[in-house]
């Protein structure tokens, strides 16, 4: 089995937000929630960089570790998923997540959190693959159809890569060698405790 | 003629060499004179400097502009390791202390025995506030402990669905009972603060170890030194636990993720110490001391109990009763028989 990862080549990201839109549309993401977002650093200054960020599907995921009800599980492809039937909306995964991936629809008065929602690597949830109930709760299950996450698939500059960690790391290394520079795989050290050395 | 051709050939050769040299020079300069990363920030530099990487985004949710925060993994370690150790040591430590106390000292009896005469210690309003606070506290403590210790201790005993349902109701109870709990702390403060200002009698009481550690009955007013300490622990602990709790119930109302992480750390540590203190209070108010529990049931205590534990209060009360009796105009007077 592959070890699925995301890699955002920040030297290629043009902050078009197509990944954000694609994700929202493909997964019918609840109102007010963005599973993926683009953050621009040093906006308008020399050396400006944009990074597309979502759940990184960490190795030894912090969300999974702190969840009081054990709602998370890691698939054979190393994708970190969760069950919305088990989630109690306590907010702890958000405190622990280094990337701010978990989000909660506001379901009641004040700040009452509903069931947590986050990027599923387009791999659905615990329900049967391709079922209507899985789509309703978690969005598309493209991985079960043999497809990769739509955000990366339709990235116009191929800045965002998704897939087997070794393969996307190899693609990134070749790019860096060819063009002679690279600002590194953002979030990899935090998420996977390794960086791409080229 | 031949010489001329040969000279031209040499010149072409020199030019070709020159072109080659220039080309290789240019190749060595790849990727050109501009390195796009020369002035760009690197992830590791930012993380080392700030522990948080924040930028700008184009969606309305401004908290999503934080790209990365390393306090998350640190908070995880606190929650998974540190807090569980603190909780286990405090709660098991207090329970062990109480078992030790019960086995060595036993129940503290009323030394003079029951007199059969009762004296009112807590009025209906005081008992109402006490039990409202107590009921909320027990539910809040159990539902809070479930968040930290439920997964290792309770989840193995039941199905994940059942544990999730239980935890969800516990969460709702925790959130909603926080309001009557806070009200109880406020009402208790105004109800008892005047009688809980520390004075010289309390210092003497504490020096002699009170009735629990010491072996005699140092004089005390309505609240002894230990009870005054408890009062202030409930007031300050309850206030802090309520403030930090509301910071978590209302996410991003003037807080960011770091404030909420700190609020959770403060909330959990204070709550654990609070639970430890309350275990002591529950013990001494129930099985630890004969005649104490009834003061919070029908509000009265035996006169001998009151004399032993709150001698100065009994003096005050009887002085007040005498004064009432002297000045009361409706006092039934003995009428000489006709």
In short:
Chain A is an alpha+beta fold and 198 residues long. Chain A has helices at residues 18-27, 62-66, 92-96, 132-138, 150-153, 165-179, 188-192; strands at 4-8, 37-41, 49-53, 72-74, 80-82, 160-164. Chain A contains seven helices and six strands.
Query: Biggest sheet of chain A, strands in spatial order?
Result: 1-6
Return the structural class of chain B. Answer: mainly alpha
**Structure summary, number of beta strands of chain A:** 6
The gyration radius over C-alpha positions of chain B equals 37 Å
Shape of chain B: elongated
CATH architecture of chain A: 2-Layer Sandwich
The top-level CATH class of one domain in chain B is Mainly Alpha
Oligomer: heterodimer
For this structure, the CATH topology of one domain in chain B is Fumarate Reductase Cytochrome B subunit
Please report the total strand number of chain B as a whole number.
4
């Amino acid at each position: 089995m592959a070890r699925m990862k995301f890699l955002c080549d920040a030297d290629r990201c043009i902050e078009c937000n197509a990944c954000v839109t694609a994700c929202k549309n493909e997964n019918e993401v609840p109102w007010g929630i963005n599973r993926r977002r683009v953050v621009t650093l040093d906006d308008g200054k020399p050396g400006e960089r944009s990074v597309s960020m979502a759940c990184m599907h960490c190795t030894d995921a912090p969300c999974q570790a702190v969840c009081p009800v054990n709602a998370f599980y890691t698939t054979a492809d190393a994708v970190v998923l969760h069950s919305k039937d088990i989630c109690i909306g306590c907010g702890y995964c958000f405190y622990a997540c280094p990337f701010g991936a978990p989000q909660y629809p506001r379901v009641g008065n004040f700040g009452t959190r509903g069931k947590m929602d986050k990027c599923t690597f387009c791999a659905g949830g615990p329900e049967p693959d391709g079922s209507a109930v899985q789509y309703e709760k978690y969005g598309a299950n493209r991985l079960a159809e043999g497809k990769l996450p739509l955000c990366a698939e339709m990235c116009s500059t191929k800045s965002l890569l998704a897939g087997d960690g070794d393969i996307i790391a190899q693609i990134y290394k070749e790019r860096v060698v060819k063009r002679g520079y690279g600002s590194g795989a953002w979030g990899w050290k935090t998420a996977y405790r390794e960086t791409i050395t080229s | 003629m031949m010489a001329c051709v040969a000279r031209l050939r040499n010149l072409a050769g020199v030019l070709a060499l020159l072109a080659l040299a220039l080309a290789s020079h240019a190749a060595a300069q790849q990727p050109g004179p501009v390195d796009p990363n020369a002035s760009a920030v690197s992830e590791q530099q930012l993380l080392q400097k700030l522990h948080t990487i924040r930028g700008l985004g184009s969606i309305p949710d401004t908290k999503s502009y934080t790209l990365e925060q390393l306090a998350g993994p640190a908070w995880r370690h606190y929650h998974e390791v540190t807090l569980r150790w603190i909780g286990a040591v405090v709660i098991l430590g207090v329970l062990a202390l109480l078992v030790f106390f019960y086995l060595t000292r036993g129940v503290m009896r009323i030394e003079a025995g029951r007199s059969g005469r009762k004296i009112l210690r807590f009025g209906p309003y005081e008992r109402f506030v006490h039990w409202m606070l107590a009921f909320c506290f027990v539910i809040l403590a159990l539902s809070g402990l479930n968040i930290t210790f439920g997964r290792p201790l309770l989840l193995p005993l039941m199905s994940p669905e059942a544990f999730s349902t239980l935890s969800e109701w516990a969460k709702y109870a925790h959130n909603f009972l926080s309001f009557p709990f806070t009200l109880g702390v406020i009402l208790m403060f105004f109800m008892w603060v005047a009688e809980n200002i520390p004075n010289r009698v309390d210092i003497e009481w504490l020096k002699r170890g009170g009735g629990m550690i010491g072996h005699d009955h140092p004089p005390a007013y309505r609240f002894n030194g230990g009870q005054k300490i408890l009062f202030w622990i409930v007031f300050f602990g309850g206030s802090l636990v309520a403030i930090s709790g509301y910071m978590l119930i209302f996410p991003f109302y003037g807080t960011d993720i770091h404030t909420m992480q700190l609020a959770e750390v403060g909330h959990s540590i204070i709550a654990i110490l609070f639970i430890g203190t309350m275990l002591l209070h529950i013990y001494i108010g129930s099985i630890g001391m004969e005649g104490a529990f009834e003061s919070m049931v029908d509000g009265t205590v035996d006169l001998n109990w009151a004399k032993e534990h709150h001698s100065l209060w009994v003096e005050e009360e009887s002085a007040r009763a005498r004064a009432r009796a002297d000045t009361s105009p409706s006092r039934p007077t003995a009428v000489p028989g006709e």
